[in-house]
Amino acid sequence: MAAHLQAVAQAVPNVKLLINGQLVDSKTTEWKDVVNPATQQVLARVPFATPEELEAAVSSAAVAYRTWKNTPVGARMRVMLKLQELIRRDIKKLAECLTHEQGKTLADAEGDVFRGLEVVEHACSVGSIQMGEHLEQVANGVDVYAIRQPIGVCVGITPFNFPAMIPLWMFPMAIVCGNTFVLKPSEQDPMTPMLLAALAVEAGVPPGVLNVVHGGKTAVDTLCTHADVRAVSFVGSTHVGNHVYKLASTHGKRAQCMMGAKNHAVVLPDASKDQSLNALVGAGFGAAGQRCMAISVGVLVGKANDWIPDIVAKGKSLKVTCGTEAGADLGPLISKAAHARVLSLIEAGVKEGAKLELDGRGIRVPGYPDGNFVGPTVFSGVKTSMTIYKEEIFGPVLCLVSVDTLDEAIAFINANPFGNGTGIFTQSGAAARKFQYEVDVGQVGINVPIPVPVPYFSFTGSRGSKLGDLGPYGKQVMQFYTQAKTITARWFDDAATAGPVHTTISLK
Ligand code: NAD
Q1: Is the Cβ atom of 465 under 6 angstroms away from ligand 1?
Q2: How big is the chain by its Cα radius of gyration, in Å?
Q3: pLDDT tens-digit profile of 478-487?
Q4: Which mutation among 112, 251, 292, 339 tests ligand 1's pocket best, with the greatest number of atoms within 8 A of CB?
Q5: From the CB of 296, is ligand 1 less than 6 Å away?
Q6: C-beta of 157 in contact with ligand 1 (< 6 A)
Q7: Against a cut of 0.90, is the pTM above it?
Q8: Burial of 263 (0-12, 13-18, 19+ CB in 10 A)
Q9: Catalytic machinery residues
Q10: Which one of 56, 68, 150, 363 has the minimum C-beta count within 10 Å?
C-alpha cells in the first residue's frame, strides 16, 4: 500500500469488540468500512470477528451468567437506573454518532436513542414485572407458585435502521432479568451500539454480562447454533429473519424474529385533512422510509382520493439533505446498494404502469454531491400485482391505492401478508373501532401514523412480520428472557396422620 494510503487507513479507527468487559482489537483479516451515507467519508472500519473471538464472547457470557443470575434483582435494577442516567447525559453525542453513520436527521436520531432509553427506564422496575404467581390451598395444605428465572446466554442480532433503539430493546431487559448477552449489531452502523455498550460498562454491567461482536452471516450463524446460547432475538429483514428463526429453533434455542413490513394507512374522507396528510407524509418519508413501521401504502377511501395533489405538495416541501443540516427532514439511504435498489424499484413502478406523481430520483443536494439521496416519491394507481406493492421498498416511496369503502380498505390490508403496523385517519369513532376490531395487523394507530407501543406494552407486529410468539420489550420480552418454574408444595402439619398410601394423580 502506498505510504499516503497507509496513513489514511491508519487514521480511520477500528471498531472494537467488547469481550469480558474489555474493548478488544479484532485479529481478523476481514474488515468493512463504516461510511457516512451523506458524504461517503469512511468513519471507521468494522471487523468480522474470528471464530475464536465469537467463542470468547459466548464463553465469557456463560461464565458471567453463573454469578450474574445470583445478583439480587435490586442490584441489577440499579445498574439500569445508572445506565438510563448515562444515556440521558450522552444523548446528544449518541445522536450525533448515529446521524453520521446512519444518515437520519439529528432530531430523529435523538428520537431513536430516546425510544430505547424508555426501555431502559422500564427495565428499572423489572422487580414488579418479573414477579411470579401464588395460589394457596389448591388441595389440603398444598400451595402452588410460579417463579420466573433467567435462562442463560441470550443473543441479539440487530438491523441498521435503529442502531440505538433496537439494541436497547434487547440487552437491558435480558440483563436485568438475570441473563447475560452477546450483541451482534448491524455491520453498517456499529459505532452507536458500541457507545451504548461502553455506557453499560460505565453503569456497572460486570465483565462478561454484555459482550459485543461484529460481523455478518458467519457470526450470526455461529451464535444461533452455539451450544451455550439459550435464546436469540433478531430484528431485520424477512429473508434473514426466516433463516435465523429456523436455524436457532432447530438448534433448540428460543427465537423471536421481527421482520419486514408493508404498512398501510387508511385515509377516510372525514379525516382532519391537514393533520392526517402531515402524518401520512411524515411517516412515509421520515428516516428516508427506512423504518419497519414507515407507512408505505396510503389507502385513500372515496373522496379522500381528491387529496393526492396535497400529498404530493407536502412531499415536495420536505428538505432532503445531510441529517446534521438545520431543517433537514430526511437524510440519505444507508448505502450505495440500498440507493440503487430503491431507484430500480421506482423504475419498476413506472414500467409496470403506476402513475408517478412525484419523482425523487436524480435529486441534487447542495454540498453533498455523493450522498445516497432519494427524494420523496409518490405513486398513485398502485395495484397489488406491481413490484412496488409486493416488495418492502425501504426508501422514501409512498404508494397510493384507491378504494370506495372502509370494508374494502380493511379487506385490502388483510390480504397483504405482512402485519407489522397500520393506521386509520378519521374523525369517526365508529369507523376507527370497526377498523381496530377487523384489521388483522398487530399494531394499529388511530390518527397516529407510527404506532410503536411504549415499553410498558410490547411490540406486537404479527403475521409475516414476525416469527415467535413473544415480541420485544414489555412483559412479553420478560417472558421471553425467563423460564417459568411452577412449584407445588405441601407442608405437613406435625400433628397430621399419614393415612393410607395414595396411588392416584389427584391432590387430596
Ligand atoms: P438485514 O436482515 O440485512 O440485517 C439484520 C442483521 O442480520 C444484521 O445484523 C446483519 O448483519 C445480519 N445478516 C445480514 N445478512 C445475513 C445473513 N445472510 N445471514 C445471517 N445474518 C445476516 O436487515 P437490515 O437491512 O439491517 O434492516 C432492515 C430490515 O429490518 C427491514 O426489512 C426492516 O423492515 C426490518 N426491521 C424490522 C423491524 C421490526 O420490528 N419488525 C424493526 C426494524 C427493522
Answers
A1: yes
A2: 25
A3: 999 999 999 9
A4: 292
A5: no
A6: yes
A7: yes
A8: buried
A9: 292
A10: 363
